[in-house]
């Protein structure tokens, strides 16, 4: 059942649905406010975000391949497959050295990248970490020609993202605490 709420916007009274999402509420606002909000996004800011994302992607895959190479050398595995960062089909076993290299490399890569992302994007580590991970999932699906449904891969990926975000955000806070952007909670 839909419920309505009276909302005052300046001197105008609006009748809004209360159980719909914010996008629908925004469409109920006067047109002048849409125009002013839409024009606040600048092309330069978008270019900076895309450049930072490109840098983070390059850092992520560079670190991943370096850590994989070290892991393959330590475990004395002869074959370093170029598709190793995207391999979710390897049999999950603690006795399988190939699987161990893949899991340990994934976790180490995510943690190191969280720290490196803090140097690139400062306090926005969590945002870029999630975006890079989503792009990695998409690339993995394309490279392996199927969507990963293996629970062990998702658990490793999830714990890696958490370590990336936590490690990176803590480092960003320590390095940039004088310059950190805190949200204004008075509006909530």
Automatic annotation (TrEMBL):
Key words of the record: Membrane, Transmembrane, Transmembrane helix
Looking at the UniProt entry, the stretches that span the membrane are 49-79, 99-121, 128-147, 153-176
- Intracellular or extracellular location(s): Membrane
Read off the Pfam families from this record. Answer: SYS1 (PF09801)
A Gene Ontology cellular-component term: membrane
Q: What is its main location?
A: membrane
| Membrane topology note | Multi-pass membrane protein
Under what name is this protein listed? Transmembrane protein 244
Which species is this record about? Cairina moschata
Q: Taxonomic lineage per UniProt?
A: Eukaryota, Metazoa, Chordata, Craniata, Vertebrata
């Amino acid at each position: 059942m839909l419920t309505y709420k009276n909302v005052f916007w300046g001197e105008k009274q609006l009748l809004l649905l209360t159980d719909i999402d914010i996008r629908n509420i925004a469409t109920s606002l006067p047109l002048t406010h849409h125009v002013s909000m839409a024009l606040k996004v600048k092309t330069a800011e978008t270019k900076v975000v895309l450049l930072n994302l490109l840098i983070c992607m390059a850092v992520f895959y560079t670190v991943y391949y370096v850590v994989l190479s070290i892991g393959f050398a330590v475990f004395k595995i002869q074959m370093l497959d170029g598709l190793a960062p995207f391999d979710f089909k390897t049999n999950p076993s603690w006795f399988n050295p190939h699987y161990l290299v893949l899991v340990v490399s994934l976790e180490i890569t995510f943690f190191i990248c969280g720290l490196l992302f803090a140097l690139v994007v400062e306090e926005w580590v969590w945002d870029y970490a999630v975006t890079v991970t989503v792009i990695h999932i998409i690339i993995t699906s394309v490279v392996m020609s199927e969507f990963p449904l293996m629970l062990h891969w998702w658990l490793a990926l999830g714990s890696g993202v958490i370590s990336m975000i936590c490690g990176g955000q803590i480092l960003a806070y320590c390095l940039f605490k004088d310059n950190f952007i805190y949200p204004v909670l008075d509006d909530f």
